[in-house]
Amino acid sequence: MDPGGSHIKDDPDVKVMMAGSILKKVKSRSWKKQQHFCLLEDAVTIVYKSKSAGKGHSTFSISDVEEVREGHQSEVLQSTAEEFPAELCFTLVFHGRQGNLDLVAKTPEEAKAWIKGVRKLIHKAQTMDEKERQDQWVRNWFLKADKNKAGKINFKEVQTLLKMMNVEMKEGSALDLFTRADKSESGSLEIEHFVHFYKMLAQRDEVRKVFKDCSGDGENLLLEELETFLSVKQHEGGQSYQLAKMLIDLLCAAKKQRIMSLDGFQSYLCSQEGSIFKPKHLDLHQDMSQPLSHYFISSSHNTYLLEDQLLGQSSLEAYIKALKRGCRCVEVDCWDGSDGEPIVYHGHTLTSKILFRDVISTLKEYAFKASDFPVILSIENHCGVGQQTVMAQHLSKILGDTLLTTLLDGQVPQQLPSPQELKGKILLKAKKLNNPEDCLDGTQTDEVSDEEAEDAESPSTGKPPARKKSKLSKELSDLVVYCKSVHFRDFEHARSHAKCYEISSFSEKKAKALAKDEGTDFVRYNTRQLSRIYPGGIRAGSSNYNPQEMWNVGCQIVALNFQTAGLEMDLNDGLFRQNGCCGYVLKPDFMRDSNTQFSPDKPEERQGYKPLRLSIQVISGQQLPKVNQKEGSIVDPLVRVQIFGVPGDQRVKETPYINNNGFNPVWNETLHFDIHTPELALVRFEVEDHDKASRNDFIGQFTLPFTCIQAGEQRDSSLLNTFPLLRISSHTSPLQDGIAIPPASLFVNISISALT
After folding, report:
1. PI-PLC Y-box domain: which residues (predicted)?
2. At residue 134, does pLDDT exceed 80?
């Protein structure tokens, strides 16, 4: 094993990082501090601290960094551009919700070295295979234990390390493993001996049993034996032989002999091919030629906010993060600016303000980074006619041909165009003076929408004013084509009068009431028209509602506060993880039929009703992270499985907890669920640290659509690091949610059968 990534450590730029640099950390025009930044020996961890911090310091991993921006490519560095030349500046952009790190070097050469060095390290981290990741993980543990950098660790250091690794082990058992690994009988382990120690420690009886049952000699799997396992146990069907060959070529040292060792078998179970998520469903695989109304669309509410709805910061970065996450509908709240330039913020609050034109420039740059399919720009318009015209000018000039301003075929639309037809286009959702097929001149008036009225609530009474007419600019109106905002009256009126290009916004309270009282009508309405749901005004802290209730009736644009980690965003991420993370998911066929009889409350009455039984044997977990950083603390993990879907499918079941074992807990607990509408169900695995005295600590989760589950003998559910609302404590962070926790995982046996 490479004892620390020696090849990358020889790179001249990485050497600069390891030597350390004094960089200026910039948070605003007034907050700038010099801090010492240094890449540690593991070539993964960056430590930084100021002189006044004493022994205190902060760290982050290269795997946390998504990209490096060069020059003035952040709001903070743009605001200080006159003070710091572009060639000295760079920005580290992190995954998840963590804020950027804006840095200024002393010389252009130093800045360039850090920019190039971090990019090389990111590339190395992204291109590692499963074995390399595991090797690095083991190597990093070794480096943590080897505090005096002697290149070896003694038994006392190993005991301390076991606690850090979440392992509770009797001293005699630990000493026995240590002695067996100490081939040189020196009383200490060098890196290669520690690898042997780790492999013995990580040996998993439950996997070994499956392996031996399939192997003729108990030592290796022949190509034919692996093919049989894949076909019979993993239900891979006709592709089993080709898959077996590919896995041996990819994961095994003995390629020529066409055999797989136990190590290779374990690597397979942790690979994408062994994942609980069907690999084909991760790719773009759905029909994208149906009307927009036939898809669920990943959507953000008040996209400009990074925090709460009253005092939070408005930022272009919020748009960048949402768009790069696959969001396809972003929102802009527009108000008159004092200098004639429209501004974006949450009106009548203390949220900060940003320029409308900067939002549109950001949209132009990032709209299609994660997905080629259309972006809907939802305008909440509070501007006077003059600044509406300025908005129209910015939209036209900045977006150019990217902004769709005419009907695709010049014909009166009978149905909405498809995502495929609208690839690379931005659609404006706003009020319109006329219909797309009409031609009117002059300034006219239109009704204020429900959401605009809610935003205009009187601070003293909290009540919206009576619905009134607002003046519209013809220039802005003309840019609206397929998403004309209209007030919703009722379903009967919509059936007889509504056009396919008319879209209404519903508060979560209104949508819930309609779903409960007129569920089937809501489903039918959503087969032809788009509907947008937004969080209620009481959610000042930017909390979210459960989006599943809205998907159950076919609502497409279910807008959530993307900045807030928690269960609701776990569900959103889980639904849109499929289909290439493109932000569009095709609704089930019974939600695309305008004559559907489907009701979420009575799924058994729909045509084609086929309920299923889902059985999940939670076998074991691997290398679960510590959540309580107290010395000697070890997790007591339990697994909770939750089903989200139509009301009759909502279920929660859990395993018992395992005392003091986060390293390799074994449950062998089977949980059964009856699923009446599998097409709408989401399955969420959550791992918690049991606490007898208080609320359990959250460890990690993985959420996926029921239809994307691979049934098989043993499957790996990689845990994602997310921290639900109200479970955030001083030692955990909501900023890293959605980021994998390598190599933490669950192993499960999934069985799906017809419910009789």
Report:
1. 476-592
2. no
